[in-house]
Write a structure and sequence with these properties.
This protein has 191 residues and is mainly α. It has helices at residues 4-17, 23-35, 41-53, 57-70, 75-87, 91-98, 109-125, 129-143, 147-159, 163-175. The radius of gyration is 18 Å and the shape is elongated.
Amino acid sequence: MSHPHYQEAFLTQLSQELRSENAATVLLALEDLERQGPLPQEGWSLRGKALMLQHQPENGLASLKAGLEAHPSSVVLRLNLAAAHLALGEALKAMELLEPLELSPTEEFQRRAALLRNRARAAAQCGQHSLAVRDLEVLRQLEGESEGLLWSLAQAYEQVGALDKAALLYRLILRKPEEVILTESSFTESS
């Protein structure tokens, strides 16, 4: 599997199949892959996620950090390391990783959405609500108006004192037929 195309396809398949119940199998596959040569950034990211799913947060963080050291310009590793910090309640560390990132409009949709979602969550947890509003508004333009996103945006507007905007968003949410998703669940980890 030394050909990069096969390696990329293999990592994509592993990533799509990763669940808590098969994380150990994914880790074994990554070990086999690493014996053939250095792991690409996707491999490091997948290892970190698998370790987190196995309730080994310290090892997951260490893997993601090691991957970022091996691939310092990797947006994927930076996003996943920040998501891991957020999952552990370390919003300030996540913010330090995410704040300097600016992805171009041509960047992959999932990456842009993950950056905006996680940076907004980190900003809100750090009390930087105006930054959360900024990123949530961009995310709203990118993804549309899901209830979870509108709820998070309304709460962020409340925190910055823009009560009129928050009220409009709450009214919009109440008009939607679907159940409102709470703020915490409206943010997800990056792919």
